[in-house]
Amino acid sequence: MSTGKVAVLGAGSWGTAFSLVLADAGNEVTMWGRREEVCEAINEQHENPDYLPGVQLPPTVSATHDPEKAMAGADVVVLAVPSQSLRTNLTEWAPFIDDSAVMVSLMKGVELGTLNRMSEVIAQVTGAGPERIAVISGPNLAKEIARREPAASVVACADEDVARMLQDRCHTPAFRPYTSVDVLGCELGGAYKNVVGLCVGMAVGLGFGDNTTASLITRGLAETARLAMKLGANPLTLMGLAGLGDLVATCSSPLSRNRSFGEKLGQGMTTDEIVASTRQVAEGAKSCSSLRALAERSGVDAPIAIHVDDVVAGRMTAFEMMDAFGSRETKAETD
């Protein structure tokens, strides 16, 4: 077991749960939180009452509202903020990141406007080379990870030695990381599954059953693979933990924010109403338009991203989306 100082920037559900994993693996963890009261609760009560109430955090996890203090001495910096706020946050934080520190993205989104993946945003803002940028992605619902239920994930970095180092830094009896060099495939799998999760949630909200959801999951995986392979990903990545594994967890679990968001859309709520009713961020509601644009720019057929974007934007209803899928022209499954 390799240990050291890790900074986790973001004190939401996944940032907090992954801090627990890192501490269980032997690291000293300092979290950065946007709100001082959350940081105080983590330091004084050893729990995050807003996002993971009742989950006791190890004594080697502390929190601060000061990003410079959080990153002091850290050789690994984990980024766990909403994907659309990464560029703004990282621009402020970059001066405090050690020149040799490895940056790890836990985020699953594509930036609006630029259509950049999170690793691309990190490279642009910090100037870091690919050997200092990694992503962790897989079927990792935060509440189950925090309960130390067995789970696996993928640590991807262009430099395999760095991926193995990070694998060692987050390997615990309950959390099993596998390495990969396919950063692009892991990121697209992670971002796209949120959009498919929204779609499946809408079907559930409309009252449809397992045949419908299984069909959507399968066609969602095919759509994800089409785009990822067009952009240069390894197709086996999409069949693995960061592709199929994450997709199944997101689409099957009521713990998934994106599926829950989709269910409410299926029940007739508007995007604005859902956003106003929850503190949690459903990344797919933002990334669906980015992924639609990325697919269109790449010349890839992406009916799920297109229709989910239309429902989220209020241009069509969830029922109209399902009707549109059924009326599409028939074709061979492997086309």
Overview of the structural elements:
α4 (86-93) packs parallel to α5, α8 (183-205) packs across α14 (283-298) and α15 runs antiparallel to α16 (318-326). This protein has an 8-stranded mixed sheet with strand order 3-2-1-4-5-6-7-8, sandwiched between helices. The protein folds into 2 domains: 5-181, Rossmann fold (3-Layer(aba) Sandwich); 184-326, N-(1-d-carboxylethyl)-l-norvaline Dehydrogenase, domain 2, CATH 1.10.1040. The protein is of the alpha/beta class and 335 residues long. The chain has helices at residues 13-24, 36-45, 67-71, 86-93, 118-126, 142-146, 160-169, 183-205, 210-230, 235-238, 241-252, 257-266, 271-276, 283-298, 303-312, 318-326; strands at residues 5-9, 28-32, 61-64, 76-79, 102-105, 133-137, 151-157, 175-180. It starts with a strand and ends in a 9-residue tail after the last helix.
Task: Give a brief description.
This protein is α/β, with parallel strands linked by helices and 335 residues long.
Topology of helices and strands:
Blueprint: E1 5-9, H1 13-24, E2 28-32, H2 36-45, E3 61-64, H3 67-71, E4 76-79, H4 86-93, E5 102-105, H5 118-126, E6 133-137, H6 142-146, E7 151-157, H7 160-169, E8 175-180, H8 183-205, H9 210-230, H10 235-238, H11 241-252, H12 257-266, H13 271-276, H14 283-298, H15 303-312, H16 318-326
Parallel strand pairs: 1-2, 1-4, 2-3, 4-5, 5-6, 7-8
Antiparallel strand pairs: 6-7
Helix pairs in contact: 4-5, 8-9, 8-11, 8-12, 8-14, 9-11, 14-15, 15-16
